[in-house]
Write a structure and sequence with these properties.
By secondary structure, the chain is an all-alpha fold. It has one domain. The protein is built from five helices and no strands. The longest helix is centred in the first third of the chain and has 37 residues.
């Protein structure tokens, strides 16, 4: 196994989580913007008492900061997702994609069930499927990191 394989496997395992978190962050931003709008439409406090966190100005500042952090994280998450989409998923064969999808993006409850499901779906023996998974991962590794010495 090359030095890049653990990083590749972690990247593939995190892909689905990143997709979910991206959706959640976008929903949170929408909610925070709606809250900002509600604060903006109401009248501002005449006096802003610093430190108590109760003034509308402070609430707006906190919301703006929170949204800024989330927007930066969304950009990072989108970049990571695009790296996988463009770098890997668009360059794998249909069979490699099914294998990667089955093992990493839509696995069963256990590894054993995942293997059995894929064997049934693709019509291969377990040993052949495991060899094909290894080849698919090696292809992913080459796509992501270039030629890797073994």
């Amino acid at each position: 196994m090359s030095e890049f394989m653990p990083q590749l496997i972690k990247c593939l395992e995190d892909y689905k989580k990143m997709m979910i978190s991206l959706s959640n962050m976008e929903r949170i931003i929408k909610i925070k913007r709606e809250k900002m709008q509600m604060i903006k439409t109401s009248s501002f406090d005449d006096i802003c008492i610093k430190g108590n966190g109760n003034s509308k100005e402070e609430m707006l500042d906190e919301l703006i900061s929170y949204i800024d952090v989330l927007e930066k994280q969304i950009k990072i998450t989108k970049d990571e997702i695009n790296l996988i989409d463009d770098g890997l998923l668009n360059n794998l064969s249909e069979l490699e994609l099914k294998i990667i999808d089955g093992f990493f993006f839509h696995p069963a409850e256990t590894y054993r069930k995942t293997v059995q499901n894929l064997c049934d779906k693709l019509g291969y023996s377990e040993s052949h499927l495991i060899r094909m998974k290894k080849k698919a991962l090696e292809h992913c590794e080459i796509i992501m990191f270039g030629k890797v010495e073994r």
